[in-house]
Design brief:
This protein has 163 residues and is mainly alpha-helical. It has helices spanning 17-39, 53-60, 87-96, 116-130, and strands at residues 42-46, 69-73, 137-138. The chain is 34% helix and 7% strand.
């Protein structure tokens, strides 16, 4: 993988949510395994929300060597660390604990910081340190209203949206 960019994964459609979760987990695991075989390390970022829960459960029991994978987030809610709405809590419960992912490989977004810009810069530095060529896998969940990564359709911060 060093020196080359892997081909993007195709868009896959499954008949049920459970089948989609199994297929997504299998595809992600396959890609991470390829990265591990070629470089000895890999990186992945997961979305929060409801859609990845079953997929994360499947990944937790996959053959991925999580001791060599850095895990990041695509998005996070700005809520207290123990809040049930926190995306990292769901990722922890469904993947990190059951998959026995070492804490040194877990990189939650720093929310609740007094200086969000500094926190964002620090997270960017973590990404540069542990995924210098970019993330190997970025999982984007899809909400019922079509949103992904906490960006709802028509959100005022999106380019071209009404302020």
């Amino acid at each position: 993988m060093t020196g080359s960019t892997p081909a993007p994964l195709p868009v896959l459609v499954e008949a049920t949510e459970a089948a989609a979760a199994r297929r997504a987990a299998a595809e992600i695991a396959r890609h991470l395994q390829t990265c591990l075989e070629h470089r000895g390390t890999a990186s992945v970022a997961f979305s929060g929300g409801h859609s990845p829960r079953a997929m994360l459960r499947e990944l937790a029991v996959s053959k991925v060597d999580w001791r060599r994978v850095h895990i990041f987030q695509v998005d996070e809610r700005d809520v207290a660390i123990g809040d049930r709405d926190r995306n990292w809590r769901m990722i922890t419960e469904e993947l990190l604990v059951p998959g026995r992912v070492p804490s040194a490989r877990c990189h939650p977004m720093p929310v609740g910081e007094s200086n969000p810009s500094a926190a964002a810069r620090a997270y960017s530095q973590l990404l540069d340190e542990h995924a210098p060529a970019g993330l190997d896998v970025v999982h984007l969940g899809l909400g019922e209203d079509g949103h992904t990564a906490s960006w709802a359709p028509g959100d005022r911060v999106l380019p071209g949206s009404e302020a």
